[in-house]
Amino acid sequence: MDDGVDASVYVGNAGKDAALDRGWLLGHFKDPGDPRHCADVEIKWGLHPQGEARSRWVRGEERTALLLLVSGRFRVELPGRSVLLEEQGDYVVWGRGVDHSWIAEETSVVLTVRWPSVPGY
Q1: The organism sits in which domain of life (predicted)?
Q2: What does each C-alpha distance from 4 to 8, 11, 31 come to in angstroms?
Protein backbone atom coordinates (compact mmCIF):
# COMPACT_ATOMS: atom_id res chain seq x y z
CA MET A 1 0.00 0.00 0.00
CA ASP A 2 1.47 3.33 -1.05
CA ASP A 3 -0.22 6.13 0.82
CA GLY A 4 2.45 8.71 0.05
CA VAL A 5 4.04 8.41 3.48
CA ASP A 6 7.81 7.91 3.67
CA ALA A 7 9.46 4.72 4.98
CA SER A 8 9.74 6.17 8.50
CA VAL A 9 5.99 5.68 9.06
CA TYR A 10 4.14 2.39 9.47
CA VAL A 11 0.36 2.10 9.69
CA GLY A 12 -1.12 -1.22 10.73
CA ASN A 13 -3.64 -3.12 12.81
CA ALA A 14 -2.41 -4.65 16.08
CA GLY A 15 -4.64 -7.71 15.80
CA LYS A 16 -3.56 -8.49 12.25
CA ASP A 17 0.13 -7.60 12.67
CA ALA A 18 0.38 -9.51 15.95
CA ALA A 19 -0.44 -12.75 14.15
CA LEU A 20 2.70 -12.33 12.03
CA ASP A 21 5.29 -12.27 14.86
CA ARG A 22 3.91 -14.03 17.97
CA GLY A 23 2.17 -10.81 18.98
CA TRP A 24 5.19 -8.52 18.86
CA LEU A 25 4.62 -5.20 17.11
CA LEU A 26 7.84 -3.33 17.91
CA GLY A 27 11.35 -4.23 19.06
CA HIS A 28 14.93 -5.11 18.11
CA PHE A 29 13.68 -8.18 16.19
CA LYS A 30 12.04 -6.15 13.40
CA ASP A 31 14.11 -5.46 10.28
CA PRO A 32 16.43 -2.46 10.73
CA GLY A 33 14.74 -0.52 7.89
CA ASP A 34 11.30 -1.00 9.46
CA PRO A 35 10.00 1.92 11.59
CA ARG A 36 8.98 -0.72 14.16
CA HIS A 37 12.63 -1.67 14.74
CA CYS A 38 13.69 -0.40 18.17
CA ALA A 39 16.45 -1.33 20.62
CA ASP A 40 14.87 0.68 23.43
CA VAL A 41 11.45 -0.93 23.86
CA GLU A 42 9.29 -3.89 22.81
CA ILE A 43 5.50 -3.84 22.42
CA LYS A 44 3.26 -6.89 22.18
CA TRP A 45 -0.47 -7.24 21.43
CA GLY A 46 -1.31 -10.49 23.17
CA LEU A 47 -4.44 -12.45 22.25
CA HIS A 48 -4.95 -15.26 24.79
CA PRO A 49 -7.79 -17.79 24.79
CA GLN A 50 -9.34 -18.74 28.12
CA GLY A 51 -7.12 -21.18 30.00
CA GLU A 52 -3.93 -20.38 28.09
CA ALA A 53 -0.98 -20.25 30.46
CA ARG A 54 2.70 -19.54 30.05
CA SER A 55 4.42 -22.91 29.66
CA ARG A 56 7.03 -22.07 32.31
CA TRP A 57 8.09 -19.18 34.52
CA VAL A 58 10.40 -16.52 33.10
CA ARG A 59 13.52 -16.61 35.27
CA GLY A 60 16.33 -14.05 35.39
CA GLU A 61 14.38 -11.35 33.56
CA GLU A 62 16.67 -8.58 32.26
CA ARG A 63 13.93 -6.10 31.37
CA THR A 64 11.28 -4.00 33.05
CA ALA A 65 7.74 -4.76 31.87
CA LEU A 66 4.28 -3.25 31.93
CA LEU A 67 1.30 -5.48 31.16
CA LEU A 68 -2.04 -3.72 30.56
CA LEU A 69 -5.41 -5.44 30.26
CA VAL A 70 -7.44 -4.40 27.21
CA SER A 71 -10.19 -7.00 27.67
CA GLY A 72 -10.87 -10.24 29.54
CA ARG A 73 -9.50 -11.46 32.86
CA PHE A 74 -5.76 -12.14 33.16
CA ARG A 75 -3.65 -13.28 36.11
CA VAL A 76 0.06 -12.49 36.44
CA GLU A 77 2.05 -14.64 38.86
CA LEU A 78 5.01 -13.01 40.58
CA PRO A 79 7.19 -14.38 43.40
CA GLY A 80 4.98 -14.46 46.49
CA ARG A 81 2.18 -12.57 44.77
CA SER A 82 -0.65 -13.14 42.31
CA VAL A 83 -2.07 -10.11 40.49
CA LEU A 84 -5.52 -10.31 38.89
CA LEU A 85 -6.25 -7.87 36.05
CA GLU A 86 -10.03 -7.81 35.61
CA GLU A 87 -11.10 -4.29 34.62
CA GLN A 88 -10.12 -2.73 31.31
CA GLY A 89 -7.05 -0.61 31.96
CA ASP A 90 -5.79 -2.61 34.97
CA TYR A 91 -2.04 -3.03 34.72
CA VAL A 92 1.01 -4.32 36.55
CA VAL A 93 4.66 -3.27 36.27
CA TRP A 94 7.62 -5.37 37.38
CA GLY A 95 11.32 -4.64 37.24
CA ARG A 96 14.45 -6.41 36.17
CA GLY A 97 15.12 -9.64 37.99
CA VAL A 98 11.46 -10.33 38.80
CA ASP A 99 10.44 -13.85 37.73
CA HIS A 100 6.90 -14.16 36.36
CA SER A 101 4.26 -16.30 34.70
CA TRP A 102 0.62 -15.82 33.67
CA ILE A 103 -2.73 -17.42 32.85
CA ALA A 104 -5.73 -16.11 30.91
CA GLU A 105 -8.71 -16.74 33.21
CA GLU A 106 -10.99 -15.53 30.39
CA THR A 107 -10.24 -14.88 26.74
CA SER A 108 -8.03 -11.80 27.05
CA VAL A 109 -6.26 -9.10 25.11
CA VAL A 110 -3.21 -7.61 26.85
CA LEU A 111 -0.71 -5.00 25.77
CA THR A 112 2.83 -5.64 26.99
CA VAL A 113 5.61 -3.06 26.94
CA ARG A 114 9.14 -4.19 27.84
CA TRP A 115 12.36 -2.24 27.99
CA PRO A 116 15.06 -2.38 26.89
CA SER A 117 14.63 -4.62 23.83
CA VAL A 118 17.17 -7.38 24.52
CA PRO A 119 18.25 -9.85 21.81
CA GLY A 120 18.22 -13.49 22.79
CA TYR A 121 14.76 -13.79 24.30
Answers
A1: Bacteria
A2: 11, 12, 21
Question: How many angstroms separate the CA atoms of 111 and 71, rounded?
Answer: 10
For the entire predicted model, the pTM comes to 0.87
Q: How does pLDDT run across 58-113, given as a tens digit for each residue? A: 898 889 999 999 999 999 999 999 999 999 999 999 999 999 999 999 999 999 99
Catalogue the long-range contacts made by 23-29 (C-beta closer than 8 Å, 24 or more residues apart).
23/47, 23/112, 27/114, 27/117, 28/117, 28/118, 28/119, 29/117, 29/119
Average pLDDT, the chain: 92
Give residue 45's identity as a one-letter amino acid code. W
Say if residues 73 and 47 touch (Cβ distance below 8 Å). no
Kindly list the structural domains of the chain, giving each domain's residue range(s) and its CATH number in brackets, ordered by start.
14-115 (2.60.120.10)
Distance CA 93, CA 103 (A): 16
Compute the CA torsion angle 102, 30, 17, 68 (nearest 10 deg). Answer: 30
Q: What is the C-alpha separation between 73 and 79, in angstroms, rounded?
A: 20
d(CA 114, CA 7): 25
